[in-house]
Each structure stands twice: as C-alpha cells, then as structure tokens.
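User: My instructor asked us to take a sequence, write out its structure as tokens, and then describe one feature of it. I'm not sure where to start. Here is the sequence I was given:
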Amino acid sequence: MTLGAGRGSDMWHGAGVTGSGVVGPGPVNSGAMGPGAMGPGAPDAAEPRPEGYTPTQRDLPVIGAASAVPTPTLVDTPSPAAGGGEQGPLYVVGDVHGYLDELRTALLNQGLIDTEDHWIAGNARLWFLGDFTDRGPDGIGVIDLVMQLSAEAAAAGGYCKALMGNHELLLIGAKRFGDTPVGSGAGTASFQAAWLLNGGQRSDMERLQEHHVQWMSRLDAMALADDHLLVHSDTTAYLEYGGTITDVNDAVTESLTHHDADETWDLFRKFTKRFAFRDEAGATAARELLATYGGRRIVHGHSPIPYLLGEVGSEDGEDGAPQVHGPHVYADSLAVAMDGGVTMAGKLLVSRLPLPA
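Assistant: Let's start with the prediction itself. The structure tokens for your sequence are:
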C-alpha cells in the first residue's frame, strides 16, 4: 500500500489529545505554524449555477468537475428509492482520508467502477461514511471522484451518496475561517491550526474550490438504509441535534449556513467524539441511537479499527502496520466499524451490506 503524504507524520505529538482522539491545538500565536504555513486564502468565486439550482438541497448528484469529467454536470435523476424502482445491492465505504489510489482499487475490486473510474454497478447503492481528506495525498481527487460517481450512478438508476465527517467540518472551517480564534476546552484555537495538526494537506487547500465547499456543506450527517443506521462518528452526539434523522440533518445543514466560526467549531468538536459503543455501556448507547433514529445496526467510520481495538496507540499508527481483514462487528453485534485504518497502513474498506453471518 502506497505511503502517501501525511501518513504517520502529520500529528503533532506535543499537542494535547482530547477525549475525541483528535489532536487539540494549544494556544495559537503568530509563530505557531512557522513561516511555511499557509492561510486558507480567499474563497474562489462560485461557479455559475444552472437555473433553479438550490445549493442547500441534499441528495442531488453533483455540481462541479472532476478531472475525469471535463464538463460540470447536474443530474437530477431520482434514486430508485424515490422513484419506486427496484433497489440494487447496498455498499458502504469507510474513511478514505485522501488515499485515492486505494479507493479506486477497492471500488474496482467490488465491481462498482471500471478501470477508467466510471460507474458500472447499475442500480447498486453506495454510501461513503465521510472523511475524504487529510492525512493522505489527494483528498480533493477523492472528492472529485465521489462527485463524479454520484452523477453517473444516478443516471444508471442507482446512487452514490456521502455523509458528513468531522474532517469535512475541519476543512470547511479552515477554508472559511482560517486563523480566526475559536473557543475550545484547551484554550484559544483556530480551524487552520487544528486542520494542520490533524493531517491537513496544503495541496488540498490549494485545489479546494467553492463547489467542493458547497458540496461538503450540504452532506447529510446520518441516514437509514436497509435497517442500517449510517453515521460517520461512533458517538451519541447526534442526539443533541434532534430526535429524527431529518431533524439532525436539517440542524447540521442550517448551522453551516450561518458561517459562524464558533458554531462550526462546536459541530466539529462534537463529531470528533468516539468510542461510545466500545466499552461496557457500548451496547446500551447503541440501542439508544437505534431506538431514536431507527434501524437494527449502526454502521460507522471515524475510529480506525486497530485504534478501536487498542492494537495501536494512536491514529498515526506508529506502533506498526495493523492487520485488518474486514469490518469490525461489536457492541452485542449492534455496531459495525468501517474505518480500516488506511492512514496507518491498514486497509480501505468497501463492504456490501448486510455483512455475511
């Protein structure tokens, strides 16, 4: 597996690690990042939008151009669920973190794309669980591929959708707010500092465009598919945003429309929490989420399986390459972890649901 930029070297070990497992910056000062650190830059001008396009509407395949799609497209073809057609098999993808080559290989092995990165899975359904960027070498390439597949899958009668991860919130914050101070439990912080400390890649920021930010900012936080409750983070923080899936998604989307640094930071902080389903009370926490939002099993990313199992000391995997063979089922079989630890030389997981018994 290719060792891309950021793997094993992107975490600042002098920083305090919060209970979420995300590195929390100390007090920010003018020299904290050194002379080579770059600011977020001014936002790019928004691309022209097709008539009638509403940027806050969710579940529409993409606007914007991936490298493989020279002309920006907007495909309004409804998913099979919305149109009443037959639904294809369901797949989920764990955290990608910029490892584009590993993602292409995993999707190709599952028969979802061809060697030219085009959708060939017909009416199959594909969910990405978030965290497309940071730590790996090509986060923007990952986003472009997901956007492209969203359009192609919808046109073929299937769908490719994605959830909001904490690293999407981190990247949005770094782009919008840069070094603007925000309040944190560890003192004064900024999105720019936190982004760099948690694997932010300058090449991603240089290539980040307004249509990428718009796409990320309208991703859902959670979804229900075939009795699987899909979320990014293994946390119960979702309960703080509403009692239904629609309420939670609307609350997160609405919050991001405010363009408020502290409010976005609060979202980021809550969705970096982890391990809610791991210990003795884990099954109880999982049942609470399922009773509230529906489904029989939670499927999440966020916490790498080796980290979740205590096989490595941190997400940067300095303790050696772990062995990951597939999703990790735990919490009385109520939770499935899908982050195979690609950032620590583990595995990028793409799995069909339901999992084999």
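For the description part of your assignment, you could build on this observation: DSSP finds eleven helices and 13 strands in the chain. Try explaining in your own words what that tells you about the chain.
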